[in-house]
Amino acid sequence: MSNCPAPFCPGVGRPSSLCCLPSTPPRRRGRSPQPSDRTSAASYCRFEVGTHWDRMLSSTCYVSFTYILYFSLLNRESRGLVKHTGGCHCGAVRFEVWAPHDLHVFHCNCSVCTKKQNNHFIVPASRFKLLQGDSHLTTYTFNTHVAKHLFCKTCGVQSFYKPRSNPDGYGVCPHCLDEGTVRKITMENFNGKEWEVSMDQHETIRNMSIV
């Protein structure tokens, strides 16, 4: 593998970790050489992962891509995040979420949260991944219809939802997490009966869904 001397790929502005390619594209066995207009590292780097996946797998970009994923994982761990897993009661819905060992959980007293005891902690959407069960989920909305209350069709359990306060993130129910990764839970009461006033007065809740 050659080392790209520039911090960004010439002409396309991509990080050098994605363009550390040889000056001449590797010739595949049984195939003719690449066209001459693709022989420079800059032009050879002009690919989209989605449409040229086979090229990435056969080039040194795959190694760089692996390093990016590896250092992304290290970055999450350096922020004190751990991977929690969880799901509904019947097991049809499963998810994973990156969050601290010590969870900051909201206890809301609005009408729906009181009925279903919706204690939850908030994470950015990028730190939440639904592993299985998308077809098993059904959605309930009311009033502004911004919040999306997601329930398993089989067992009726809500293990996560899209909160009105943070529609760009997820509210995850700590009681639906698997055992072994939560160290401490700190509960904060949120006055959902006066939602607009409470949101205006709260200093941090909107930022909880931002990476």
TrEMBL record:
<keyword id="KW-0862">Zinc</keyword>
<feature type="domain" description="CENP-V/GFA">
    <location>
        <begin position="84"/>
        <end position="196"/>
    </location>
</feature>
<dbReference type="InterPro" id="IPR006913">
    <property type="entry name" value="CENP-V/GFA"/>
</dbReference>
<dbReference type="InterPro" id="IPR011057">
    <property type="entry name" value="Mss4-like_sf"/>
</dbReference>
<dbReference type="GO" id="GO:0016846">
    <property type="term" value="F:carbon-sulfur lyase activity"/>
</dbReference>
<dbReference type="GO" id="GO:0046872">
    <property type="term" value="F:metal ion binding"/>
</dbReference>
<comment type="similarity">
    <text>Belongs to the Gfa family.</text>
</comment>
<protein>
    <submittedName>
        <fullName>Centromere protein V</fullName>
    </submittedName>
</protein>
<keyword id="KW-0479">Metal-binding</keyword>
<dbReference type="InterPro" id="IPR052355">
    <property type="entry name" value="CENP-V-like"/>
</dbReference>
<dbReference type="Pfam" id="PF04828">
    <property type="entry name" value="GFA"/>
</dbReference>
